[in-house]
Amino acid sequence: GALNLFFKYQDIFTSAGSTSGVLDITKFPDRWGLSNYLGLFEENENDWKNNSVFYLAEQKVESKPFIFDCGTEDFVFDVNKSFYELCLNKKFPFTFIAQPGKHHRDYWKKSILQHLDFFREIVER
């Protein structure tokens, strides 16, 4: 959610972060009841893309700094890696951390500390 709002409203936010984020919801059309809100993917592809961080970022020419991370054993790792490659190609000022871990609070307990360090640096600038 944070990166979604960040890319929609960069005039409001200085930065944002995502840990183990589902950065491309179009890859998971049958999960979390999203079709109850966005309609079936096959019938509402634009609505899905307009609410997917990957496609929101794809439309941007530039960005403010942001951070995202994902455990290498997480089920959303491939989506995060694809987003990383998009950010590289667009030359966004981002930090991506890939480290061992699953989609689990044990992973998030350590990754949140990295986010706090990142945001401390943003605030101190």
Describe this structure in words.
The two termini are 25 Å apart. α5 links the parallel β2 and β3. It is globular, with a radius of gyration of 15 Å. It has a three-stranded parallel beta sheet, sandwiched between helices. The mean pLDDT is 95. The chain has six helices and three strands. With 125 residues, it is α/β, with parallel strands linked by helices. The longest helix has 20 residues.
| Radius of gyration from the alpha-carbon trace, in angstroms | 15 Å
The largest beta-sheet arranges its strands as: 1-2-3
Question: Unreliable segments (pLDDT under 50, ≥5 consecutive)?
Answer: none
Largest sheet: 3 strands, parallel
Order of helices and strands: HEHHHEHEH
* Intertermini distance: 25 Å
| Number of β-strand runs | 3
Fraction of residues in H or I helices: 40-55%
Average pLDDT, all residues: 95
- Tell me, briefly, the overall form: globular
Q: Determine the number of helices (DSSP H or I, runs of at least 4 residues).
A: 6
Question: What does this entry show, briefly?
Answer:
This protein is of the alpha/beta class and 125 residues long. The protein has a 3-stranded parallel sheet with strand order 1-2-3, sandwiched between helices.
Topology:
Elements: H1 2-8, E1 17-19, H2 35-38, H3 45-49, H4 53-58, E2 66-71, H5 77-90, E3 94-99, H6 105-124
Parallel strand pairs: 1-2, 2-3
List keywords for this structure.
125 residues, alpha/beta, 45% helix
